[in-house]
Structure formats: structure tokens, C-alpha cells
Design brief:
With 291 residues, the chain is α/β, with parallel strands linked by helices. Helix content is 47%, strand content 11%.
Length: 291
């Protein structure tokens, strides 16, 4: 199993992404990756069945990363074996006019998974302390009464926003939502290679947007924004994991291992029926056998 503790950012710990190697693969070899992932997918299938039947918790998985880090592929491969009836994926793009007329967490509340369900946020409420931190002019579109100009978007503004996110996550945790947050840590060189693949391979052209190049120019700013967000919002009830993403096969193993470990820690059981319900089952069985 992946050494999960090495990937966890820790609660209240200030991190530097330079301390995490995007190429890290532990003791795993690529040749064994498919076999390992297949076993994990089977385990997730069993765990999801119990999770759904117990109907006591919901699971929220948050995925954040730089462009081309492999979020979509991770979802597709890791979650490929689970029952789609028990899982929903939400990709949060630029907020609409209606969404901007509410607080920044409102649209995320609406998409939270119900008990027994797994919800995946492919980009999430963290965009409000990532892309908006690199492009603070976007905050002006929220028409906040306390923000009249870019000068009002200061360090205290961001600390308040981290606190709001922590309060949001603490509230849903206390009401039964298990939260796992993944940052897919991609190197700048590997991003370059993946962008070139998207340009050079015709069947991948659709994946490329010129805007990706424009955002790449802000690489260092984004790295700082991720460090600040992770450092200020990794908690015991909603931990961040920094997933090495230069090797997609490893990031998928790591993500699946962490989800499995989290679900196992809940120690959930298939609900056992009460005596009255068991009696009804026996009665129904006799009726069917005597038809």
C-alpha cells in the first residue's frame, strides 16, 4: 500500500510544494500498476456496496490541480468499477450570474452527496482561493459589500475566506460527510510535455485550449496559491493529500489507496434487520416457494 502519511499535508501544517517530488512512485513499478489498480477497483466496489447500504455517511472527494495533471483520467480509472447509481461527479466552471448573486459556497452546497453516496468535485470551492487569488479581479464580479476595489482584496480577505471554507467543511463533516481532498502535484516540465502531446496528436487536439498557455505563465503564482490553500485548510476532518502526478499510473494507485483506507476506517457494516423485518422476509420466502 502507498505510504499515505507521506502524502498527507497534515492539519495546521505550513507546507512547501518543493518538499513533494512530483515524480515520486515509492516502491511501485509501472509494470505492476495495472494489476494493483485492478485489485483496488475490486476493493472499492465491495466497500461502496457496504457504504451505500449503511446509509450513515456521504463521501466527498475534492480534486484540484494544474491543467493536464490527470484529474479526469484519475476519476475514470479509479472509479471505473463502482456502481454509478451511488456516485456523482460535478465539474465547477466559471460561476453563472445567479451563482454570483449568492455566496461563493452556495453552488457547492447544492451538489453535496447525500448519505450513502459518493460525490466528486472536479475543481471545487477551492477555485475561490486559487484562480481568484491569481486573478483577484474576478472577486469584483461577486459584488461583495466589503470589496469596492482590488485594494480591498488583502491578506485578511484571503484568511477570512480560508476560515469560511474550513467552517463549511467542518459543518458537513459533523453532519456525516467524509471529506478527502487531493492535489495532483504536476511538474512544470511534465505539463509542457502533456501540452505538446495534445498539440501534436490530432485525436487530443480537442483537449487543448490556448488559455492553458496563458495560465501557465502564472505557474509560480498558482504554486503559491496552492501552498497557501493547503496550509490553511488541511484539517483532521478534511485532510489534503499531495499526490505525485508526473506518473499517472502512480497517482491513480495513490488516490485509490487513500479512498480505500478512508472507507475502511469507518468500519461500516451491512445493516441487520430487526426481528419483525426478518419475520416478513421468511413469510415472503414461503409465499414465493408455495406459488
Amino acid at each position: 500500500m502507498v505510504e499515505i502519511d507521506k502524502l498527507c499535508a497534515g492539519a495546521g501544517k505550513k507546507i512547501s510544494l518543493k518538499d513533494y517530488d512530483p515524480k515520486y512512485t515509492g516502491e511501485y513499478k509501472e509494470k505492476d500498476a495495472k494489476k494493483k489498480l485492478k485489485k483496488n477497483i475490486d476493493k472499492l466496489d465491495d466497500l461502496q456496496y457496504t457504504f451505500y447500504a449503511s446509509d450513515s455517511h456521504s463521501l466527498l472527494i475534492v480534486l484540484q490541480a494544474m491543467d493536464a495533471a490527470g484529474k479526469d483520467g484519475a476519476i475514470r480509472h479509479v472509479m471505473s468499477g463502482i456502481n454509478p447509481q451511488g456516485c456523482a461527479i460535478h465539474n465547477f466552471r466559471s460561476p453563472s450570474k445567479i451563482e454570483l448573486d449568492h455566496d461563493f459556497l452556495w453552488r457547492h452546497y447544492l451538489k453535496l452527496p447525500e448519505r450513502g453516496q459518493i460525490g466528486i468535485f472536479n475543481r471545487s470551492h477551492y477555485e475561490n482561493v486559487l484562480v481568484t487569488k491569481v486573478h483577484p479581479e474576478y472577486i469584483l464580479g461577486e459584488q461583495l459589500p466589503s470589496v469596492k476595489s482590488l485594494n480591498d482584496i488583502n491578506d485578511q480577505f484571503w484568511m477570512d475566506r480560508y476560515e469560511q471554507i474550513n467552517n463549511f467543511e467542518k459543518t458537513i463533516h459533523q453532519n456525516g460527510t467524509v471529506i478527502i481532498k487531493f492535489f495532483l502535484h504536476l511538474s512544470k516540465e511534465e505539463q509542457k510535455n502533456r501540452f505538446l502531446d495534445r498539440i501534436n496528436e490530432p485525436d487530443k487536439n480537442w483537449k487543448f485550449s490556448y488559455g492553458d498557455i496563458e495560465e501557465r505563465e502564472h505557474w509560480d503564482e498558482y504554486q503559491n496559491a496552492f501552498e497557501q490553500a493547503i496550509s490553511n485548510t488541511s484539517t483532521k476532518y478534511a485532510p489534503w493529500y499531495v499526490i505525485p502526478a508526473d506518473n499517472k499510473w502512480f497517482s491513480r494507485i495513490a488516490i485509490s489507496d487513500i479512498i480505500i483506507d478512508t472507507l475502511k476506517s469507518l468500519d461500516l457494516k451491512i445493516p441487520e434487520l430487526e426481528a419483525k423485518e426478518k419475520a416478513k422476509l421468511e413469510k415472503a420466502k414461503n409465499i414465493l416457494l408455495n406459488e
